[in-house]
Amino acid sequence: MKKGDKIRIIRMYDNSGADKQATKMNGRVVTVKFIDDKGLIHLEESGLALIPEIDKYELLSDGEVRK
Fold first, then answer.
1. pLDDT at res. 65
2. Minimal CA–CA distance to 9: which of 51, 49, 67, 57?
3. Cα-flanking dihedrals φ and ψ of residue 58, to 5°?
4. φ and ψ at residue 59, rounded to 5 degrees
5. With a threshold of 0.85, does the pTM exceed it?
6. Predicted pLDDT of residue 47
7. Contact between 10 and 58 (Cβ < 8 Å)
8. CB-based burial of residue 12 (10 Å sphere; 0-12 exposed, 13-18 middle, 19+ buried)?
9. Hey, which of 11, 28, 46, 60 has its CA 20 to 30 A from 19?
10. Which helix (H) or strand (E) holds 9?
């Protein structure tokens, strides 16, 4: 995965509904802004970052499905 790839967020951890911003991301298609040195996937559209070990998503740019 790299900057500019498109991913669909299947389920973003939202702390049992307490994080409303994360809840709103479920089902959205977003663009990878960058991946930091901890492996977090930062998103262009929201300022949020996906945590690969926790959040569920699929990579759309090359057709390869991820977590």
1. 45
2. 57
3. -130, 140
4. -80, 125
5. no
6. 86
7. yes
8. buried
9. 60
10. strand 6-11
pLDDT tens-digit readout, 7-66:
999 999 888 878 888 888 999 999 999 999 999 999 998 889 999 999 999 999 565 444
The partner residues of 7 in beta bridges, in order of sequence, read 30, 59
d(CA 18, CA 41): 21
* Nearest Cα to Cα of residue 5 among 25, 38, 30: 30
| Token digits of residue 47 | 């300022």
Radius of gyration (C-alpha) of the chain in whole angstroms: 11
The rounded distance, in Å, linking the Cα atoms of 65 and 21 is 24
β-pairing verdict for 29-35 and 6-11: antiparallel
Contacts of 58 (CB under 8 A, 6+ apart): 7, 8, 10, 65, 66, 67
